[in-house]
UniProtKB/TrEMBL annotation:
Signal sequence, start to end: none
Protein species of origin: Pukyongia salina
SUPFAM superfamilies: S-adenosyl-L-methionine-dependent methyltransferases
Ranges for domain Methyltransferase: 42-136
Protein's name according to its UniProt entry: SAM-dependent methyltransferase
Length: 253
């Protein structure tokens, strides 16, 4: 996962325009809507640099985050060192086990879509299941297949900067229809505004898109119940225009 260690250096800048606060409030609303018992503790699988975890902590939850990239975890610990309601672990979500159980497990920003094989999807869900208390909620988002195939991925360019650096990122997709995978090939240029030096990084992020029946089957394997499927940031069912979708499921009591 060396790509993610490189990516972490520019991660927060690239997603300055992402509304983490609204997203944390949405997760809070989902929990309050579907949880029968009071939810106090959350495990965040694939926490990145900890932005969702920190905001959920500010909403009153105790949050533990885990990520596979050492630099992501290091950055999260640095950013939120004064928040006693947060803990961060280095680990692979397909293997992670801290021998604790939580009221809710979340996995956001399409972490499940990075699990390309059925084996890794099942292992990730097993991790969530093992770390949930009976009656606990599993909440995760992903690329939604009907929308991906309706509105095919396009070449995209993003430019963003701060006082120190300018980042230019070109994304070129490659479809693998028989595997339900999109390879997103990133060409990133990072220019230092003082020295005018430009570094170049190439990365490939392989993203799996999912369909409702297959996710329902995966969740049924672990006896998750009361599964709901939504378009991201809404309480309506996903459709052919819903590139980002979310599922919430409950562990049997």
């Amino acid at each position: 996962m060396d790509n993610f260690n490189l990516y972490a250096k520019y991660y927060d800048l690239l997603y300055t325009d992402k509304d983490y606060s609204d997203e944390a409030s949405y997760i809070d609303a989902l929990i309050k809507k579907f949880q029968d018992l009071e939810t106090k503790s959350i495990l965040d699988l694939g926490c990145g640099t900890g932005n969702h975890a920190n905001l959920l902590s500010e909403l009153g939850y105790t949050v533990d985050g885990v990520d596979i990239a050492p630099e992501m975890i290091e950055r999260a610990k640095q950013k939120f060192s004064e928040n006693n309601g947060l803990n961060f672990y280095l680990g692979d979500i397909t293997k992670f086990n801290n021998e604790k159980q939580y009221d809710a497990v979340i996995s956001l920003f399409h972490v499940l879509s990075y699990q390309n094989s059925n084996t890794d999807v099942l292992k990730s869900m097993q991790t969530a299941y093992n770390h949930l208390k009976p009656g606990g909620l599993f909440i995760f988002d992903y690329w939604y297949g009907p929308a991906v195939l309706t509105d095919l991925p396009q070449v995209r360019t993003k430019e963003i900067g701060n006082d120190e650096i300018l980042v230019l990122r070109n994304a070129t997709p490659k479809m693998h229809y028989n595997e339900n995978i999109v390879d997103v090939n990133y060409a990133i240029e990072i220019t230092d505004k003082v020295s005018h030096r430009t570094d170049r990084v190439n990365e490939k992020h392989s993203m799996r898109y999912f369909f409702k029946p297959e996710l329902a089957l995966f969740l049924e394997h672990f006896s998750f119940t009361k599964c709901k499927f939504y378009e991201w940031m809404t309480f309506t069912e996903p459709g052919s225009k819903s590139w980002n979708a979310l599922t919430i499921a409950k562990k049997d009591i």
